[in-house]
Amino acid sequence: MPLNQLSSDAIRTRIVEYLAPGHFCSGEVLGEQLGISRAAVSNHIKCLHDLGLDIYSVQGKGYKLAQPLILLNKSTIAAQLSNPGNANLIVLNVIDSTNQYIKEHQTELPNGFVCLAEAQTAGRGRHGRKWVSPYGASMYLSMHWTFALGYQALNGLSLVIGVAVVEALKKLGIVEAQVKWPNDIYVQGKKLAGILIEVEGQMGATCQCVIGIGLNVALPTSVTQIDQPYTDMQSILEQDIDRNRFAATLINELHTTMEVFEKSGLQPFIAPWQAADVYANKAIKLIIGQKTIEGIGRGIDNSGALLIETAEGVRAYQGGEISVRPG
């Protein structure tokens, strides 16, 4: 395609590719390469900065990324998958959300299809909360899966995906990752990742499931919108993270996990979930609307419900409106 016909998204992708090695590149050179004015380059740089890309400028030198960036690459990821048949994936630049992409295309997608993006403009977490999604700084991944048996086959899925994420992290050296009921991953008391499961369908009929994962890889220091303690892979391992390698590792783990879950449900994952429970035998409080229940966390039962021990004994709690906090 001629340069003057490139979309704004394609131009910004090209700019990031030029800057990715980590060296300075002037607005004049970028403009010549892309066939646009220096003013247009400046506007695109501002948009990238607004998307969370840690980029700065020095008069007389040009623009530079705060640190080199290896972009996600479909071919690189596919080459590292344990089963070539699992290479049904798409890598996008900027999107509203990867979950939304899967939802809009799910009727035409095969099981296990994965959508990855460099940035999200409308990423969401549990209860509709905004998921901060700076450019090239995290893993924004969504997988499509169809369940022929309907909603009843999904019991405990968010817990199972949590176990899969923990196992993938272990393979990259993060052995201290833990799960927080029902859908978060913690390391050293700080949030590393979140899981969002969205389902469409009817009881007793085939349902379409979107498994969304947001995982912090190397967040820029400029991030200020996160309202809780958080961490990222780079801080934990104290080294640069190969996002393509991790994407392949996570996709491999998700496929293996989903195949077991389809056949056997939650049961095979209860023990590993219990072993990784961040609140195991610790004081916690459940917030259910205006009500607060305090007690000791006792893991989950066979249905995936959270167990809490109070003076009245051990009770199970289940439901999307429950929030769990340290006691």
Automatic annotation (TrEMBL):
GO terms for molecular function: ATP binding; biotin--[biotin carboxyl-carrier protein] ligase activity; DNA binding. The keyword Amino-acid biosynthesis does not apply. It catalyses: biotin + L-lysyl-[protein] + ATP = N(6)-biotinyl-L-lysyl-[protein] + AMP + diphosphate + H(+). InterPro entries: aa-tRNA-synth_II/BPL/LPL, ArsR-like_HTH, Bifunct_BirA, Biotin_CoA_COase_ligase, BPL_C, BPL_LPL_catalytic, HTH_11, Transcriptional_repressor_C. Biotin binds at residues 97-99, 120, 124-126, 191. GO terms for cellular component: cytoplasm. Keywords: ATP-binding, Biotin, DNA-binding, Ligase, Nucleotide-binding, Repressor, Transcription, Transcription regulation. It is an enzyme of class 6 (ligase). Residues 81-262 form the BPL/LPL catalytic domain. Pfam families: BPL_C, BPL_LplA_LipB, HTH_11. CDD domains: BPL, HTH_ARSR. Residues 27-46 bind DNA. Its EC number is 6.3.4.15. GO terms for biological process: regulation of DNA-templated transcription. NCBIfam families: birA_ligase, PRK11886.1-2. Belongs to the biotin--protein ligase family. Acts both as a biotin--[acetyl-CoA-carboxylase] ligase and a biotin-operon repressor. In the presence of ATP, BirA activates biotin to form the BirA-biotinyl-5'-adenylate (BirA-bio-5'-AMP or holoBirA) complex. HoloBirA can either transfer the biotinyl moiety to the biotin carboxyl carrier protein (BCCP) subunit of acetyl-CoA carboxylase, or bind to the biotin operator site and inhibit transcription of the operon. HAMAP family: Bifunct_BirA (MF_00978). This is Bifunctional ligase/repressor BirA. It comes from Paraglaciecola hydrolytica. The gene is birA.
